[in-house]
Amino acid sequence: MTSLSLGPSWLDPTTLISTFGLLGILAIVFAESGLLIGFFLPGDSLLFTAGLLVADGTCLSRPLWLVCLLIVAAAVAGDQVGYLFGRKVGPGLFRRPDSRLFKQENVEKASAFFDRHGPKAIVLARFVPIVRTFTPIIAGVSRMNYRTFVVHNVIGGLLWGGGVTVLGYALGRVAFVRDNIEAILVAIVLVSVVPVVVELLRARQAARAAEDRRVDELVD
Questions:
Q1: Measured between alpha carbons, how far is 21 from 50 in angstroms, rounded to an integer?
Q2: In the prediction, which pLDDT does 217 show?
Q3: Residue boundaries of the structural domains of the chain
Q4: 126-184: per-residue pLDDT in tens?
Q5: CA distances from 163 to 173, 196, 215 (A)
Q6: DSSP annotation string for 144-171
Q7: Which of 1, 74, 102, 168 suits a disulfide with 29, CB 3.0-4.6 Å?
Q8: Could you tell me which residues come within 8 angstroms of residue 177 by beta carbon, excluding any fewer than 6 positions away?
Q9: How far apart are CA 173 and CA 51, in angstroms?
């Protein structure tokens, strides 16, 4: 296995897994799913790489079903913690000052995503980096019905945690993928960034439209 040469070496999925093993994967999935400090972690590429390594038999010698089960459990638990944190913090989260590990724009982005998609945002956000960290917290701030949240949380955890890992495992058994693993991982990272770019463009377009409306009102 080669290392993914994007970003700091300590965030490389292969390096993380070879160093910390399955426990490291679970800790990262948990943190990225609902802790404010987890938004920068490489969730998608980490899960995909975990599946690849299970198929390859290196670093991860556990059976696929067990790896998927534990990852889904960590993802669901992380969102639960995020939801409870949001309920406790409440609207004060929107007044929290920016810091090195916290940006108000990330909260606003997740809030807009949640408002746009409603309860299904809990599922969809799993596949959107950064947004997936803050969405369960926003659900808690909004005091979303707890039972509804749990149902969507479990569905999202299964589709993301289990689905991406199984995809990595399935493709890891294909010779072409094994021979071009670094390019595949780079593609996974790039694809995972697409939703973020789309959300940023939408937010910029909405801000521009609002500014145009203000200008028109002043002119009138």
A1: 9
A2: 65
A3: 9-219
A4: 888 778 888 898 888 888 899 999 999 999 999 999 999 999 899 878 877 767 766 77
A5: 16, 20, 47
A6: --HHHHHHHHHHHHIIIIIHHHHHHHHH
A7: 74
A8: 52, 171, 184
A9: 10
